[in-house]
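User: Okay, second chain of the day. Same drill as before: sequence in, structure tokens out.
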Amino acid sequence: MASQTALSVQKVTLPKALALDSGRELEGVEIAYETHGDLAEDKANAILIFHALTGDQFVASEHPVTGKPGWWERMVGPGKPIDTSRYHVICANVLGSCMGSTGPASTSPGGAPYGMDFPVITIRDMVRAQMALLDVLGIEKLHAIVGGSMGGMQALSCAANFPERTSRVLAIATTARHSAQNIAFHEVGRQAIMADPNWQGGAYYGGETPDKGLSVARMAAHITYLSEAGLTEKFGRRLQDRDAKSFGFDADFQVESYLRYQGITFTDRFDANSYLYITRAMDYFDLAEEAGGKLADALAGAKDTRFCLVSFDTDWLYTTADMREVVHALNAVAAPVSFVELSAPYGHDSFLLDVPALDRVVKGFIG
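Assistant: Same drill. Structure tokens below.
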């Protein structure tokens, strides 16, 4: 399928300093974003899509670095579940990332890249930046917000902290807080980056980049996005061509070759410091802690917002039990919520792949 052409790929500079949860402020924050579909005269048909950890604003158009279709092109477009012939879809690159929005690679007021002098950020900071983007665009209330994985964290954070900004919240394959296991996997990736000699304490801009460390971090994370059944079906214990080489420490198994490819290609489009900052923001995320430890209290202001939560039976990164915890909290504040666990063989990545049942859920909820 040919990729769509974005109607608008833009960047704005926020007019006011962005206050962060750390207590610091960022001046001159830039937010890069993409839009699809016409905005109605009353601006009531806008949908904001939050992307995941390694995603970006190129939700439904060709990626300028990889040349691949947008990461959710199967879901967003004319006649698709998120129908751009009816809705104006906005997707912004998150604060701290590396595809145009302000992040560690951006130039600091001192004239050099921030590197590790970039302030610590949170999921709520990312959402706060995107609400400021909506202010610039003159959009007061969204028809819906949508997000999967880290995008789902942002969707839940937006509902908790800015309930007046949306009528509907669709959160897919996500959680209200990271488990110790989630944090542990992220720490392995961060240590791989920081152990790369080219990392240089984050001051590698203009020189050799820590591609080896970033590649290993991506490999470790990618395993958590898949299911054991999916890996077994796709690769099993199948070997590469035995006759082409001897056994050793090269990629003898097909699954090894696959993971190495995922790691190497990732370094072409992502910044190592951004990976450090964004994974840390995900680890800090605890929606209940923001409200004194009770998740229901965090979501109490969103009792008039419609919610739809979706999990997948093979997702062991953000489990159905994680999603049910959010459902119970919404039930406790009498918020209208629907929940479904879908069956799919792909693990956490199911929300990005061909799962027709998800298409039906999204289309039905978005309306």
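The longest helix spans residues 180-195.

User: Thanks, on to the next one.
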